[in-house]
């Protein structure tokens, strides 16, 4: 606003959690304000263009940092805080979408599949179906098309969410398997049912009159036709994740408007002998009106085709009621429309739906739901469901789906809603972070409004239920609500979590104290501390500093060491990381990492811990390398009994050697080479720090350089082994002993 500074010199508050051995403040908190500068644009730009293409512009950022010492048990803990903000060149982090493409039915990866952005081919999937897409600048809607070169899977057109601030968002992409082709006589009339799988009544049928098949030249083909028609049936809840696009179209005003689907179908017609592609038209699409449960939808049903470049649906025609049926004994009413199939597109039976709302969702790093521990970069997905009357947990069908990435203030997801009947539409909501599913708040045995994040009586109207509400054996990673449109005359419904469609800004700017729905990360046995604060979910929060844990914001290298512990319980293991060989950082702390060991299901009295350490290598100025001095110390009465022979030989061949006289710890100068599982060291480089860590941990658990496991194999690929006694001392005494030990120990 006029007269206001766009970048105030005084930093905004930003809290980091200190280690548990540090004292709490007067309010009982162990959080320390390190400050932050909002990455907001500054007015004006560079005085003279550089002539090197698009200008970076000027943004608010860190101008000066100060090193402070926080008194903790038996020592001072260094922490760098933002002292002053100012305008400078904007960070231009790469914006990426990463993920994996698999078949929806078998999980088989799409190997070397083609990837298109618009009409442009941008790459291939890898052998395991993995992909990375760099989002072009100024992209508002990222539409990617995945094509199976072997033509076994139906093309998938996906609208992929991404984080505009930079970094990578992880997406699992599912592709439908093509239905086995049936042979048809092109000279006769044929009918192909739509949605008859699983013993269900078909949603409709595709009627192909005699002579409907055409070669691309326009010549009629009357020979044998191999016809494959793959139907995406919304009555099958498992098909939602494999459906293409985000079910939207552009209306006459250019506004993106949602659709509610009754089924999609992909057609592939080929000559029986040569396999050459055929066109068809005009053909008739007949839809059983009895499958439309909302009477008002009968008058609005249309036939659509998907534009694979824009990801938007385009109207092909209107479906109009037609009495009777093709056979006299049929007394059903059909909605009938005509269609010409000139290119291989996905077709859709849809109605535009204007009863829309937004649902506010936040993600947290743990079950405490502290406002300053919100997670950014989480992909929240919402599937609209049409409930079965009287059976809210058994939906009749899904209608559409949306995905949004959380920012600093959560996410607002579009959803169908109804003001007259609260349960007219329900929504199933999930959250993932780097491929990891987050947990929703429990709804049984007793619903706690304070934990869910929504006050009564509105919570009761929403009918909140976690996915394990009726069966504790089910996963806890989703919740279902009635999307009850808020009553503007009811003060209890004016504060979220559901907002009317015209209140998007109110939803996006809602304070954390307003009603919202929650997910959280199940990770109580891990702690991370960086001397130079950095939010891994926001690449723009990176600060160039010699003590930064991640020296390069364009590429993140995660390093882990595997520790085997022989003892009757689980143990906390800490890595202490200080400068080892660089003259600017020698002896100075980079950060701490704590990780609790996980029991090996196959070995008694044995557990393993995958502990992160700061990789050796160049610091942020790319001038000299630093071999981080890493100390690995298990909690309790433990003594080192073995060191991996290959790792010991490598360290002895790359001096200097760290002092390892203290048998309660293991120390090394971090290797500069990306050693593998044979050494007990696991290194992964990625543009997404969380994803790099997730992959490295999975490989560490498995004990291999290319595998992935959630089950600990403690004896596989281990670097160092400790033997621990049954009764460890308290955590405080462990940390006191660690912090009071000399740096070289």
Describe this structure in words.
The chain is mainly beta and 745 residues long. It folds into 5 domains: 15-45 and 54-89, no CATH class; 96-175, Carboxypeptidase-like, regulatory domain (Immunoglobulin-like, Sandwich); 182-322 and 332-352, Chondroitinase Ac, Chain A, domain 3 (Sandwich), CATH 2.60.220; 356-520, no CATH class; 526-724, no CATH class. Helices cover 6% and strands 39% of the residues. It is built from 6 helices and 48 strands. The strands form 11 sheets. Strands 12, 16, 17, 18, 20, 21 and 24 form a 7-stranded antiparallel β-sheet that branches. Strands 13, 14, 15, 19, 22 and 23 form a 6-stranded antiparallel β-sheet that branches. Strands 26, 27, 29, 30, 32 and 33 form a 6-stranded antiparallel β-sheet that branches. A hairpin with a 6-residue loop joins strand 42 (617-618) and strand 43. It is globular and about 90 Å long. It starts with 14 loop residues before the first strand and ends in a 5-residue tail after the last helix. Mean pLDDT is 86; it is low at 46-54, 325-329 and 728-733. InterPro entries: CILP-1/2_8th, CILP-1/2_b-sand_dom2, CILP-1/2_C, CILP-1/2_dom, CILP1/CILP2. This is CILP2 protein.
